[in-house]
Amino acid sequence: MRHATLALLLVACGSDPVAPLRPDSGATDANLASLSCAEEEGVRRGVFERYCGDADCHDADRPEAGMDLVTPGVTERLSNRNSVIEGCEERVVVVPGVARASFMLDKVLATQGGCGDPMPLEGDLPLEGRRCLVEWIDALEAP
If 43 and its partner were Cys, which of 9, 31, 108, 136 is the partner (CB 3.0–4.6 Å)? Predict the structure, then answer.
């Protein structure tokens, strides 16, 4: 019954759960508005440095799960990289051009299933941060 209800909700609301996170879907945060989230520097400064690189989580000195999100080159480090979480190694952290298929977005949206904790650990990433993340991943070119 629960699965049938979920399926009905998905059909009624549309099939793209990422649609509300697209950059053109509403108001923007003034702090992120000045950054181009379609580029690595924008997502690094606007999202990763602010919400992921503090508290010794994903900084350069102690990158949890080997994921340094604050130094340049994050696109190359995460694109087409498989998760290191035990039992979830088949999940791709960032699928260039396809945010909804990226494990990173699942972690941020808390839709990762049994694959670790939602991120960030301190609470939900604000809507504008999620939008920025989607914009960055969708703008990446597939190899």
Answer: 136
Is residue 125 a contact partner of residue 119, using CB atoms and an 8 Å limit?
Answer: yes
Q: What phi, psi does 106 have (nearest 5°)?
A: -60, -40
Q: How far is CA 53 from the centre of its chain?
A: 14
Q: In whole angstroms, what is the distance from residue 81 CA to residue 115 CA?
A: 15
How far from 98 is each of 14, 31, 46, 104, CA to CA, in Å? 17, 25, 20, 11
**Length, in residues, of the chain:** 143
Give the sign of the dihedral formed by CA 94, CA 96, CA 100, CA 101.
Answer: negative
The predicted model scores a pTM of 0.77
Q: What is the secondary structure of 81-133 as a DSSP string?
A: PBP-STT-TTSBSB-TT-GGG-HHHHHHHT--TTSS--SSTTSPPPHHHHHHH
Give domain limits for the chain.
17-139
